[in-house]
Amino acid sequence: MEKRSKLTLYMGMFYMLVILLLGLIIITEKKKDFLIPKIKKDINNYLEEKYKDEIKEFNYDNIIRKDNSYILKVKNTSNKNLYFTVVYNNKKITDTYKKDYLEGSTLNTYMTNKMNNEIKEATINKKVPYKTYKVTYNTKLNNCTSSVKEKLLNKKYNIPIYTINIEDSYQHINELKVILINIVSYTASLNLKPKNYNITLNNSQNITKSMNLIIDNDIILTSIDEVEQIIINNNQELLQKYHIKLKYLN
Questions:
Q1: What three-state secondary structure class fits 13?
Q2: For residue 233, which of 44, 153, 175, 186 sits 20 to 30 Å off, Cα-Cα?
Q3: pLDDT along the chain (250 residues), means of 10
Q4: How many CA atoms does the CB half-sphere of 236 hold within 13 Å?
Q5: 47: which residues sit within 8 A by CB, 6+ positions away?
Q6: Which of 220, 178, 231, 171 has the alpha carbon at shortest distance from 197?
Q7: What is the model's pTM?
Q8: SS3 of residue 87 by DSSP
Q9: Separation of CA 123 from chain center
Q10: Closest Cα to residue 135, out of 106, 99, 166?
């Protein structure tokens, strides 16, 4: 009987300890949520002080708590796809303003995904003539002119600042002119306006002749015959003049 009483007592103490621990965990978690208004104020002060010239173009999402960090997403008022994050952790505030907002990394990612999805939809019932045909935006927003920046913030993304990456194959260098003409024709059929192309051409007969070519769209359109000879002859002076990058891969 005495053993049973002790067992009951120990079980009761055990359950009470579990309840206390659970209570402490709940109180600790709730306390973290109670801190949000104060942390929000601290973050607002941080933004107003550090980015006082840009503050009028910022929109704030609600603060999200993740473990011991408090995260605020700050979006551009004209275009929500341009944003950066502010993180409050252990009384220290950091942000991703330079890379994500000033240089436009978040907008570049959005534009790249959007354009590639549109290409996928436009070609869903068509045979794409290339192994790879994808858009990438690598433009730093702070290097753009005010006119280009305004267009991007107004969600006009199909302007000549992006690269189309293409992978194709060839057997003989004399095919180059036809390949380039076909590329710009296919691009025009999709109503795309790239700044340049990053073209990988695999030689199916001799892998040492496989090449990577970075070339502006306008150069192909206006000087195709000259461009063909420059590449065939690997004329370094003229390659540089026309801003053409040519590299044999193997």
A1: helix
A2: 186
A3: 55 55 47 70 93 93 86 96 95 95 97 95 87 92 95 95 95 92 94 96 90 95 93 93 92
A4: 1
A5: 55, 58, 74, 86
A6: 220
A7: 0.82
A8: strand
A9: 23
A10: 166
